[in-house]
Amino acid sequence: MTKTYTPPQESIERQWYIVDAADQRLGRLASEIAKVLRGKHKATFTPNVDTGDFVVVVNAEKVTVTGKKRHEKFYRRHSGRPGGMKSETFAQLQTRIPERIIEQAVKGMLPKNALGRKLFTKLKVYAGPDHPHQAQGPQPLTITTIPGGSQ
């Protein structure tokens, strides 16, 4: 009978990666980030253990989408009060809070449980090119998907 390998917590090595989101497609970028946060790129991946790495995303304001999604994709939130539904398009949210676009895309690709909430805390998103994580020595993470998209 085979048993699932569970790596001990002290043997899990945490890396810091930095991703430049300028001219990257939103969905393709988010799926690569979710894969690194989850730890699926490692040989010691275990589905129920946090084996992932930290990811710092810069230039979130320059992420792109294809087709008409810039004006037709809606982001909704609710205050919890009656009639408290607010919605805005991708373009409106990108001018107001560009970090939230990438955060919501990645969060939707993580598990919907306590592990997913823990993994989400290892994602750091910044609108511009500056970030306060230089001391961790983040390595550049190259996204090998197709860049760009129509405006």
Helices and strands in order:
Elements: E1 16-20, H1 26-38, E2 54-58, H2 69-72, E3 74-78, E4 85-89, H3 90-96, H4 98-107, H5 114-120, E5 123-125, E6 139-140
Parallel strand pairs: 1-2, 1-6, 2-5
Antiparallel strand pairs: 3-4
Give a structural overview.
- The protein has 151 residues and is α/β, with parallel strands linked by helices.
- The chain has a domain at 14-65 and 96-140: Ribosomal protein L13 (Ribosomal Protein L13p, Chain: A).
- The chain contains five helices and six strands; from the N terminus they run E-H-E-H-E-E-H-H-H-E-E.
- The protein has helices spanning 26-38, 69-72, 90-96, 98-107, 114-120; strands at residues 16-20, 54-58, 74-78, 85-89, 123-125, 139-140.
- It has a four-stranded parallel beta sheet with strand order 5-2-1-6, with helices on one face. Strands 3-4 form a two-stranded antiparallel ribbon.
- Helix 1 (26-38) packs across helix 4 (98-107) and helix 3 (90-96) packs across helix 4 (98-107).
- It is globular.
- The N and C termini lie far apart (54 Å).
- The model has no long low-confidence stretch (mean pLDDT 92).
